[in-house]
Write a structure and sequence with these properties.
The protein is an alpha+beta fold. It folds into two domains: 69 residues; 167 residues, Uncharacterised protein YcnI-like PF07987, DUF1775 (Immunoglobulin-like, Sandwich), CATH 2.60.40. 27% of the residues lie in helices and 32% in strands. The protein contains three helices and eleven strands, in the order αββββββββββαβα. A hairpin with a 2-residue loop joins strand 5 and strand 6.
Length: 239
Amino acid sequence: MRNTPLSRVLAGLAAGSLLALAAPLAASAHVTATPNQAEAGSWTYVTFRVPNESATASTVKLDIHLPADTPFTSVSYQPTAGWTGTATKTALAKPVKVEGNTITEATTEVSFTADAGGGVAPGQFQTFTLSLGPVPDTGHIVIPATQTYSDGKVVEWSATPEQVKKDDTLEPAPVLWVNDAPPADHHGGAAATAAPHPAATAGDTQGGLALGLSIAALVVAAGGALLGGFALGRRKAGA
């Protein structure tokens, strides 16, 4: 194709369409927490979405690491079919008081292990929901996660927002934003509300794909109208 203004417009439209389609898919490539915002002192449901990024192995275990320095004193997990959940408590270095009660230990890890022969297969994802509270009065809470595959590979989703800002090749940890505002490009869900948040479903992924396709279609349609006007103008000029 000759390097004409028309060919450059077509190339730009093609690139824009691909970017529009890829944007919602790229955001789903990490382990994320939804919602990713909560009010201090509240109780909230947080759903962790775990994609399988291996082409050959299944995800067979997820460990969610909760903070001990700013602990959630009440933690429970929603049972997930095909998985066994366990919660591990740790003695706190500094006891905390909640509603007049002194708390000396708190849950610092929740693990989900797939039943034999199960797990998250390639091309799939799974969600795991925790009930957490009260939310500590702090800026934000980093909640690292460890993802284990059936072939022995382990992925540590542990990089803080500050670390990721300096090196975006790191594996970001899920973050619950409390008093701090999340960055505009931070992956995750909307702010928490008083109503329970359902776990993500396959429809969420399909919705993101549909959005990307819609955006791409709009870009192409707008480009078509622009090119049509351009061609019409040239014909009139040559008449």
